[in-house]
Amino acid sequence: MKKIKFKIAVLIVCFLPAVLMAQVDYDPVTQEALREAAGGGPIDFKILVDAANLGGEETRIAELTFHPDYDPQPHTHDAIEIFYVISGRFGHNVNGEAAVLEPGDIGICRPGDTIIHSVESDEPAVVLTIWLPGGAAAPFHSP
Question: How much is the mean pLDDT over the chain?
Fold first, then answer.
């Protein structure tokens, strides 16, 4: 009897997430960014994936363009934040450890890290940014 209960518990643990995810209403294909900031600011952003097309707050993905006039400010997130540099030179300072990321480089921040982003050239830095979980990605929340 214990083996049967154990097998049932394993099946529930293994398959419950799939069953729950099957009930989520989401858009498997999104033809354009969900939201784009007006140009001319220190950061332009395109939300590529969030609750509006994913159907949940598991992650948020955005293409951020940091302009040379961006004012670096220390901040924290209660999420994992992952950066992939598409173009430009992106300053990535985490807990006082500074680096300059270039196209193809990846930067990572853990929840609670003190982060300072900067633009390290006269050209904008375009960065694909992923937040896990997505709900912690303020101020880039969907309306």
Answer: 81
